[in-house]
Amino acid sequence: MSTELLTLLTLAILIVAFLYSSVGHAGASGYIAVMSLFGLAPAVIKPTALILNILVACIGTWQFWRAGYFNWRLFWPFAVLAIPMAFLGGYLSLPTSVFKIMVGVILLFTATRFLVNPPEDTVLSEPSRPVALGVGGVLGLLSGLTGTGGGIFLTPLLLFKRWARAKEAAAVSALFILFNSASGLLGNFSSTRYFPSYALVLALAAITGGTAGSYFGSHRFEPALIKRILSVVLFIAGAKLIFT
Length: 244
What we know:
Elements: H1 3-21, H2 28-37, H3 42-66, H4 72-91, H5 97-116, H6 129-146, H7 151-160, H8 166-192, H9 199-220, H10 223-243
Helix pairs in contact: 1-2, 1-9, 2-3, 2-10, 3-8, 3-9, 4-6, 4-8, 5-10, 6-8, 7-8
């Protein structure tokens, strides 16, 4: 890759990290979309996205936890089955074109719902343990198969079901993404034994954008703004899954 293309890719990664981290996400779907547009091979895209996801999720988890928004009681039932299922998904290489289109349509619908009529920032009840365990397992598998952390699915679910407020959902999703991305990366490495050579440069950009975005998301942005930003994030992710 030429210096000019690498510079543009690095800038794009920084912007994606800032946008996603402000709503408690780590940006994997955005990284995948950007790297696809730059013509990187799938064997490079998946582990790179997971590496960047881990870095930004670490920062987001710390920022939202320090701000007092993390809810362990809400988090752990989703994570118990998600982590091993993410490893399995990362290990497997399955044809997922039809599935990606279906998920992309769901994300676009969710984005429209947030943009037109964002749900109230209130909590009605927390999910039952069996529901959270089952949902977590499914999201973990999806995150491993697609090279994402699963937060792009978990956050809107938490908000639409009113299981969490906006910033609490962001905090829970950040740690959920961290564990799933680490597990998925281990699964991917177990099957491919490959890491991209220029991941360090992209990692620095992701850390910079993720630090700024998670700070503004946890300390400055209001819940309504976070939901608007989330709608943009979901549009990007949905379009990526459908068209790339």
